[in-house]
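Trying the structure run again after the queue cleared.
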Amino acid sequence: MVKVLSDQKSILGQYISELRDIEIQKDPLRFRANLERIGELMAFEISKTLNYESVITKTPLGESDSLILAQQPVLSTILRAGLPLHQGLLRVFDKAQNAFVSAYRKHHKDNSFEIAIEYLSSPTLQDKVLILSDPMLATGSSMVLAYQALITKGIPSHTHVVVVIASKQGVEYFKTHMPHQNYTLWIGAVDEELTAQSYIVPGLGDAGDLAYGEKS
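Done. Tokens:
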């Protein structure tokens, strides 16, 4: 299942517009804050799909019936660009366990590259709800490889994949190559073009560099 949140009018559109804005991008603090706010909005949308159980909550004046999550999800992100988005999700799912995957573009002399997974830290994922986030879904290969690395820790009951901007090509690659179909792909906005260097157009540039500074 694929859900594109920009198909409906909401404050999300303003946050994405600011992420794309070349002038606002000069402020890394604002850039990270917008990614965090989008993470919070995405978390709220995902929360509507989860399972809940009834509990009795004691108040100073009596008791109240409440609904709480039946199971906490596991939040995972791809380092380093995914950290602000992950933080927004974690503010909502503040009791969740966390997992981290390091993926990078391994460039070759002919200017081609492949995605390499360098590091994984995760609790068991067997029969748990996994929320996997990364700001950009360009080719889609990083997300699929990150998922493949994570499922060495167990097969989730359902995976929610959260991205801010995706290319059409990346969405199709993701749908075709995901090893399991028990997922929901949550997207802020879908862009038409993917360059030969695998950058989304109009996109927003390199999310990791904009959030944390250029790497050498």
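Residues 102 and 119 are 5 Å apart (CA to CA). Worth checking whether this holds up in the mutant runs.
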